[in-house]
Design goal:
Mean pLDDT: 94
Oligomer: single chain
Radius of gyration: 13 Å
Helix content: 25-40%
Strand order of the largest sheet: 3-2-1-4-5
Strand content: 25-35%
Number of strands: 5
Largest sheet: 5 strands, mixed
């Protein structure tokens, strides 16, 4: 799996009913590349570049994010060691499982 596969598959993997009541934007700064996830009206969309006015900003190297997604790296350990930086950890906790990050 690549990160492109991950971002491309989100809209197919997440059920619309799991998105009920969620309206958010999450930016991923992958240290050289930026992506975003937008959830609105029970739909999830991904795209290149940053989204305006994100609720959460995530900074992580591409390899580290891929390792987290694949379950090889514990996200909490990645945060504690500085590999993963999250601007709003409380909000991200609501979305981590939905996005397959936990």
């Amino acid at each position: 799996m690549t990160l492109n596969d991950y971002f491309d598959s989100l809209s197919r993997k997440v059920k619309p009913e799991d998105l009920a009541g969620i309206d958010t934007r999450i930016n991923f700064d992958l240290k050289g590349r930026q992506m975003h996830v937008t959830v609105k009206d029970q739909q999830i969309e991904t795209g290149e570049g940053p989204a305006d006015d994100p609720e959460v900003n995530i900074t992580v190297k591409e390899d580290d994010l891929l390792s987290i997604i694949q379950g090889n790296t514990n996200p909490m350990m990645a945060m504690m060691t500085g590999k993963l930086k999250i601007s709003n950890p409380g909000a991200m906790m609501k979305y981590a499982k939905l996005l397959g990050l936990m």
